[in-house]
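Journal club prep — side note

Before the paper discussion, L.F. wants everyone to see what a predicted structure for a comparable chain looks like in token form. Sequence:
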Amino acid sequence: VLKREPNNVPVRNLLGLAKLGAGDKVGARKAYTQAIQAKRNFYPAHLNLARLDEMEGQLMRARERYLGIHKVAPTYLEAMLELARLDELRGQSAEAVKWLEKAKAARERDLRPRLALAGLYLRQGQSKPALDAAKDAQARAPDNAHALMLIAQAQQAVGNGDAAKSVLRQVVKVAAFNPALLVQAASLQIESRDLDAARYTLDKALLGEAVYAPAQAMRIRLEIQAGNIAEAERRVMQAGASIGHAESQRLTGEIRMAQ
């Protein structure tokens, strides 16, 4: 494509991603730079350059790139989200919150700043603000599984276990057969000793993807925790190579210790 259209900026940017995926950081940087030279306001290439800086440990240079995008495009959401993420990584949580609040104001209908804010508060151990932020997101999208998950996590963190269980049932319903979300929900259910609900959730995850290793392993550990050793052994045998040799060995060891 680039031979026919050397100034095709999106393709040039994709070339950079492909080179990075192949481990060619120099080639990736060259492709991103060429995309920007062809179109200065093609912000995805600027973002990718900044992310490459981060990969190479140049956090402040990456931050300057994100700030440069924000300066010329103050409502460009991705730059603000990256600045918030990077500031949290640098231990500047108050600055991260400011960026997410600014992102919320810039894009009222976008859930991402609200979800990111709830997640940040949870990681900081601020359960009540996390709950408020998650509810704010869910009010705009009542059946959004990620918002509901954050509400459940926050409810559990503030000690409201019954409310968390109720919300997790909603998560399981709206997550369809998304195995990653269902495993996350099951983990919270196991944490609150709601084992029957966790069984149902993990079985649903495995209906969606029968060899999803995290769900298989968690389902086996649930039976070990419940003292159902024969069922745990049966499931290890049934899973076979799909959970990987190392995980199978760990689970077998856990079963032996439980016995």
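L.F.'s comment for the group: The first helix runs from residue 9 to 21. Keep this in mind when we get to the figures.
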